[in-house]
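Components:
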Amino acid sequence: MAGYAVITAADGKIGVEMAIKHLPSLVICDIMMPELDGYGVLYLLNKNPKTNAIPLIFLTAKAERTDVRKGMEMGADDYLIKPFDDIELLKAIESRLSKKKQQEQFYTQGLKKLTEFSKNSDGALELKNLVELKRIRNLKKGQILYYEGDTTQGVYLVLSGKVKISKLSEDGRIFLTGIYHTDEYFGMHDALVAKIHLETAEAMEEASICLLQKEQFDEVLSKYPNIAMQFIHLLASSIQNKDEQLVQMAYHSVRKRMAETLIRISEINKNTIFKISRDDLAAMAGMATETVSRTLSDFKEENLLEKKGSEIQLINLPKLQNMKN
Amino acid sequence: MAGYAVITAADGKIGVEMAIKHLPSLVICDIMMPELDGYGVLYLLNKNPKTNAIPLIFLTAKAERTDVRKGMEMGADDYLIKPFDDIELLKAIESRLSKKKQQEQFYTQGLKKLTEFSKNSDGALELKNLVELKRIRNLKKGQILYYEGDTTQGVYLVLSGKVKISKLSEDGRIFLTGIYHTDEYFGMHDALVAKIHLETAEAMEEASICLLQKEQFDEVLSKYPNIAMQFIHLLASSIQNKDEQLVQMAYHSVRKRMAETLIRISEINKNTIFKISRDDLAAMAGMATETVSRTLSDFKEENLLEKKGSEIQLINLPKLQNMKN
DNA sequence: CGTGAATTTGAGCGCAATCAACCCTTGTGG
DNA sequence: CCACAAGGGTTGATTGCGCTCAAATTCACG
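Structure:
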């Protein structure tokens, strides 16, 4: 009655097949289903590059808080609980579809960045084709984009929000190798070298990212040297940073590493005030969370910074920069 | 009488000017001179990209061992002591010039690598012009190619031998960020990003390297995308290695780091037997030399490796790889 | 305003750096 | 041919930084 063309499926498995076949504008999905449950459907659709940008709404009787959480955290776009109002459902659908419209504007934004990226407009058109609306995904805070071991799909461009890239050490400890946000690219190393991700990508806050498919990315690079050059510069400066970090990890004391990490974060955020969890700080500086806590308290004592909750404000940057070892 | 065209200069300063102006095939130079001594001449000629591949012979009364050492270590190609035989001098000259001829063959070798490098032969010709005979330099063990803070000249290709790249931490400790040998490129990061070297390059053994000038390198990359792609891959995989190393530095015990470093070296040398000083090992693994010594002794106890002097032979690779933390 | 998660503080201890002495190899001069 | 530096490598003793485990406290969020 609302004018939508609807395709139905009897269970999760069939639903996924149908979705891949027909590529609908939106998926509405129950959780408790035979063959494959709703979480499975969401997982599979997210995994598949063809379908991972299709909004998905859960419509289910599972009303427990944890169920809702789980669904949202896995990347569902909405969560309706049975019994439901028809108005409610239609509103949710409209809201999702209009959000997708908004992304089209986003897309123009993203494109602008891409065209700026290649100063000489060679290849800009190609890049335009690369950044397809379909490839834009929204991530919730804490949502995982890919895990270590997942097969690579391509290179990602952050349109908004922040994404952290981490690596697991053998004994399970986490190390943050990078934080990326608006207009930055990540996943290049994995996509270009290995077929498998060696790192995990997780959204640090609500973020939207855009996938440049590997083959197409490769093609554009081969065709348009000036774009390739930009990426070479990007990679080269990243190597310098990492070398610098290696020296720091090797020889600097916890105090100095903490100071350096704080400065690095303030540079990433372009602000001396920022929010970050102690765990993330620990994973960036390669130390224990407790030690982070202690060191920050010390720094506060010494009037180098101010902190309330997870918000940190650097006060005495010069002193932090010249922290003795 | 031997048929050489000779240009003379009254002192070191004039000598350098003449050398830069006329670009001779060979320089013969005294050490004790007014205005600028021989070491200064050698330093300046080595520094200048136009003259740094010209062979230089010291011909001097300074006969002390340390003088000879100093001269040779700074990169002189020969050292004759006054009073000298004319035969002796002519032999030295011939030997140097013929060595330069040999380099022409080397040059063909280097070129082969370069053309192989770009599978599709696009741009091979350009690269050929890049690798000019003039740009090939021979380095003695321990000789410094550039220091942190020197201005960059371009990208280097190792033709033979090994070159180590190191970074100084603020308190003067050294960290090895990489070891490069035959057919590998280094100095890219510095040349492409900064105008100044952020790392020090030193020959670990007799080595010969070839300089690809920055502007020309840039041009070739811009013109020939497939070559650029190769470098992108190179850089990307280097980033992965460094990320891996960062995790190791952050969370692994000295024992584990030592094991990983040993394996890395054996992979670089493609051999389980290799020679390396404890200092270099320490600088690679980011620990104290004494600790390296101790750990190696432990490993020997456990039959993981054999060592005599600075030669190490890995015996139980699997156990080293699975070293517990 | 309650609840679970995040953060802070405390106590204890083990690993690896440091300082120091000693050993071994290598090359050199008498 | 031997003695003797000199540099690299090894071993010992000591110390303190930062990790771990544990408990208390604060924060965020519904």
